[in-house]
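Worked example 4.2. Below are the chains of a multi-component assembly; read each line carefully before continuing.
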Amino acid sequence: MQKYTRWSAILVVLMLVLAACQSDGGGDGSEAPGESADASQPAESMGTGSAADCDADEFGCIEIAEGDPIVIGTALVITGANESLGLDSQWGVEVGASLRPNIADHPVEFDFQDDGCSAEGGTAAARALVSAEGIAAVIGTSCSSAGVPAAEITSAEGILMVSPSNTAPSLTAEDTHEPFYARTAHNDEIQGAAMAQYVCEVLSLSTAATIDDGSPYADQLANVFAREFESQCGGTVTAEEAVSVGQTDFSGVLENIAADGPEILYFPIFVAEGALVTQQAKDTPGLDDTVLAGADGYFTPDWLEAAGDAAEGHILSGPDLAFAGDFYEAEFLPAYQEISGEDSTISVFHAHSYDAYNMVADAIEAVAFTEGGTTYIPRTALRDAFFSISGHEGITGTLTCDATGDCADAKISVSQVTDGAFERIWPEE
Amino acid sequence: MPGRRPRLNLVNLFLWGLGGTIIALALIGSFLTIQQGRLSIEQWQSLIVAGIALGSVYALIALGYTLVYGILFMINFAHGEVFMWGAFTAFFTASGLANAGILESSPVLAFGLTLLSAMITSMVVAILLERIAYRPLRGAPRLVPLITAIGASLFLQYTARGFYGSGVRAYPNFGLFGGDIQLGPLNVPVEDAVVIVSAVTIMLALYVFINRTRTGRAMRAVSEDKDVAAMMGINVDRIIVTTFAIGGLLAGAAGILYTLLFNQVHFFMGFLPGIKAFTAAVLGGIGNVIGAALGGMTLGVLEALGPNLFLTGYGIPAPNQLKDVIAFTVLVLVLIFRPSGFLGRKEST
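Applying the procedure described above to all two chains together yields the following structure tokens:
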């Protein structure tokens, strides 16, 4: 027994030493503010700056040696029930990199992480990217539930994070936004209002009910829709119900809602629960005449497949993919198909992630400077450059960032499932 | 009540107070809800039928827990994963049949094949589990197989994730179970009716098997006293394997019935039904076969009715988010007031 005690004690000490070496700042740190003092000529397409900027910058500089790649991290939901949302955005970023492979004369490399569409996943992804050190910026997260903790973690380290699909209003609200967080997706204040406008003006309905799943995205979007529906046309919201992620039996919720017979049931939740609610709502007697509606949380062929025939006639709100110009059809989509191997896009935020990539690249090139062959990117300056982007011509429109991080040129459309496929029905093109 | 009188100390008083408060709140809530009269009789009936259907699935899984506990006195926490493996593997059978066109031409045959593949997969997983994870630990103190079971559960979950991916897959539609049927005053969806009838048939078959066949008698003997049964010439190892195999068959059937109700499979789908089936087994008296069946049905109905019945009366917003709270509160109450379950035997500890 004594022998074992001795060996296990040695093992424990070794493990403690290893753990200590892994902590922040240990090992090779690639952030060394103010290292070289020589100011050499900056490259043509880059900003001017010097070592003093790195000293003055609160979070220091990212250092990239000559020939080394600039690493951009992504934190998107690439596994699980909602993988189509994350993979679609990730491919959008990869299209961006294929059409613009160099930023500030350095090749681009990615560090793909999984945000799991949950707070735990977002925390894990953000921690992984932060500890990887030398990440220039992050494109993520997919889900707002992951975005809330991830934004906090990356902002604490001064890492710029741009989301292609977070839409919860709280992420860019005055009192709750994080300083290094921005997004190219629409704010759900706009989506909720647009959906309410559609229901009020086009469908002319007067009663509605909502179901959310407790996540920041669903909860806030359902809330915005309900308030807008009440204020825009004086509609009555008969029930605002909630379910849990992972729940499979929704008969109780649906019976409860059916008791008041609303004319439309809006449940902006995610793929797995959305498909089950769609099917079970069709089987609930009191909801025979109720219009079923959802949002960009399950705007994907995965949901169509899971819901089957019950999806027919379903209405979904989401970002408007009727983009102006030829670039989307002529260049983006073929590159997307080649990179992904899919015949068509599998979700709706790929163009937003493409625009996010290009805006991040523009911001890096605006502030990066080279001294002695090494490129330095001051973190706070990068953030400021990104947030001051104005009039960027992207696929999704003309993007201008405001002080709290909303950059999108927000356009919302409503689609309907016809013959097993999504068909855009409003607004008229 | 036979056995020792429960002691009147502070802990027990607190627990009884807690349990009593919960029950009182539930009763008052039900009264208020019925007074409010939001849901019609048909809606309550429909909820009860849905509850019995889901409860039948829980009952089939709970039988697996109870049989194993009766023989080995261990909780097989990996049983939820046995259920998941059956359902998930049968998904590939069903998709394969759908692609081959057999689903359209003879849906009943396709359904039968899918059911068979689920039951066989679950049985194999259960037998492997017994052989690899539990048999080496036969004589170990009780905590060891428990922890092993949890480890086996995680292993099975993530192996399924590795083989089958982390996405959610939707079962193809067999086209057999749409619509409703009229049973007297009740309007029952065909799915629910099929699930209830199948589950009850399987449970009756199990009951007959345990009480009328030699192997069943051997199982009962082994669960009464393993050593004496061995002395009487019963091959205890074989009986234990048989028990796990039967538990696996039941779980596989439960898997298919579950996908009739909710047509999605996911590598994590066994976790919550597994815990709820365990609750059901405890509710009915762990070790008691009829108890497991009744416990499952009761839990299913309580879950279906619970949020709407107990909570809407208080005006709680979105009560259905607390569905799982109801199921586990039931477990807490059972453990406070009657730890051996309703039909359970009092252990002479």
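Take a moment to check your reading of the output against the notes. The two ends of chain B are 16 Å apart (CA to CA). Chain B touches chain A at residues 38-40, 42-43, 46-47, 50, 54, 165-168, 170, 173, 187, 189, 261-264, 266, 268, 272, 303-308, 312, 317-321, 323-324 (CB under 8 Å).
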